[in-house]
């Protein structure tokens, strides 16, 4: 079943092999941070749901340091690339954060889901249905771990890029703002407040503030990757709002 995906993502991520080749991985400190947050129970192995798994950039790290991973990804081309990696202890599933078919407490051996990972949290997932679904599959004291690679040239406007050209590139990127919820415009956080408002008058056992501890904890790690001009363009070309442009529009994005 192919889930509904925004047209920019559907078109922009069709070349999943280019995405896997040119997108960055994550520094080791990110997986170490995650492991430090997971509830410790010597009787149960670490079980992880990797949401928006893409081609498995972070899934590869999870597979090396956890006991079982369910990688959930709505984009068919992305799943195909991830499947071909044949990662041990990883099951690749079609789904979204609002509909994780095949993921439940009993779908894991011993019925344990240790944590839900959600990378590249954006307009496809930033809604109250996502919060309900994530809570459904998490064990008590489980962790919702939101992870981004925020490059200077695709950063929030209140962030000061390291170099002049990255500032210029960031300004160009913002001309393609589609008003959807993305990390760079910070509006993704609104869903937590909206969920609270949506549930506050309902007679349910677990109010939104009980689903996830607020305020959210945040941590930033800075790391540097050196690229040639061509390598940089190859990476930029995998951003959905650029990849979905016509060839003439893409050329206008390239710096001299």
Order of H and E elements? HHHEHEHEEHEHHHHHH
Percent of residues in beta strands?
5-15%
Helix residue percentage: 25-40%
Radius of gyration (CA) equals: 19 Å
Number of distinct beta strands: 5
Put simply, the count of helices is 12
Basic shape: globular
Summing up helix and strand content along with how strands pair, one would put the structural category as alpha/beta
Largest sheet, strands/sense/barrel? 5 strands, parallel
Distance between the termini: 43 Å
Which residues sit in consecutive blocks of at least 5 with pLDDT less than 50?
200-209
The average pLDDT score comes to 76
Strand order of the largest sheet: 3-2-1-4-5
Structural commentary:
This protein has helices spanning 7-12, 16-22, 28-37, 59-65, 76-84, 128-137, 164-174, 190-199, 208-211, 229-236, 240-243, 247-253; strands spanning 47-51, 68-72, 90-93, 115-119, 143-147. With 256 residues, it is an alpha/beta fold. It has a five-stranded parallel beta sheet with strand order 3-2-1-4-5, with helices on one face. Helix 5 links the parallel strand 2 (68-72) and strand 3 (90-93). The N and C termini lie far apart (43 Å).
Quick rundown:
By secondary structure, the protein is an alpha/beta fold. Helix content is 36%, strand content 9%.
Task: Describe the SSE topology.
Elements lengths: L6 H6 L3 H7 L5 H10 L9 E5 L7 H7 L2 E5 L3 H9 L5 E4 L21 E5 L8 H10 L5 E5 L16 H11 L15 H10 L8 H4 L17 H8 L3 H4 L3 H7 L3
Parallel strand pairs: 1-2, 1-4, 2-3, 4-5
């Amino acid at each position: 079943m192919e889930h509904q995906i925004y047209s920019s993502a559907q078109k922009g991520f069709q070349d999943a092999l280019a995405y896997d080749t040119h997108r960055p991985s994550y520094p080791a400190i990110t997986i170490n941070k995650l492991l430090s947050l997971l509830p410790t129970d010597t009787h149960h192995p670490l079980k992880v749901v990797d949401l928006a798994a893409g081609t498995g950039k972070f899934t590869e790290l999870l597979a090396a340091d956890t006991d079982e991973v369910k990688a959930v990804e709505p984009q068919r081309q992305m799943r195909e690339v991830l499947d071909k990696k044949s990662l041990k202890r990883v099951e690749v599933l079609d789904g979204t954060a609002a509909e994780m078919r095949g993921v439940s407490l009993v779908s894991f051996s011993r019925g344990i889901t240790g944590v839900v990972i959600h990378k590249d949290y954006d307009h496809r997932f930033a809604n109250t249905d996502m919060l309900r679904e994530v809570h459904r599959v998490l064990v008590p004291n489980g962790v919702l771990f939101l992870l981004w690679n925020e490059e200077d040239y695709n950063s929030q406007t209140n962030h000061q890029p390291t170099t002049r050209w990255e500032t210029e590139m960031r300004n160009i990127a913002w001309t393609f703002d589609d008003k959807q919820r993305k990390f760079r415009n910070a509006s993704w956080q609104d869903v937590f407040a909206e969920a609270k408002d949506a549930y506050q008058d309902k007679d349910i056992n677990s109010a939104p503030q009980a689903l996830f501890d607020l305020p959210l904890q945040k941590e930033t790690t800075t790391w540097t990757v050196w690229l040639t001009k061509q390598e940089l363009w190859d990476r930029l070309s995998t951003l959905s709002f650029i990849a979905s442009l016509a060839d003439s529009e893409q050329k206008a994005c390239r710096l001299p």
